[in-house]
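As a representative case, we now present a protein record of this kind.
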Amino acid sequence: MTTERTGVATLKGNPITLIGPELKVGDQAPDFNLNRSLVEFASLKDFEGKVKLISVVPSIDTGVCDTQTRRFNEAAAELGDNVVVLTISADLPFAQARWCGAAGVDKVVMLSDYKELSFGKAYGVLIKEFHLDMRSIFVLDASNTIQYVEYLAEMSEHPNYEKALEAVRGIL
């Protein structure tokens, strides 16, 4: 049975429905299988032993998603080798690679949830109406326990960058 959460998020004031559970601090992060490219995949195991900052964006080609990804790309350079920053969207891997090349973004790992939207369903961020993932932030420690989570109430708003980065630094 799929959990639907209506009324917890909006797009420009209009209610949207999120599919999946609302994860909380202390929960074990669900594994995922996301596309790095059309034929390469990544799961939590690929980042074993690292602190993970997971930045979820609806579409890399929008203003807030662009800013969010650039901001965490800058931070990734300062966080050290024990941290990996993952940006996840439902964009095709081609679009993610094109955007990264044009934006000069090279510190974050771009992963695509386009195929099965399984990340969105497992992390409670799949937007039923659009088949996109809702803007959110997850910080996982090296053992994949959630240490910080931010589900945004409004899709077009920015996440709290500083709180997310403080959570990462607090684990290190």
Notes: The CA atoms of residues 96 and 102 lie 10 Å apart.
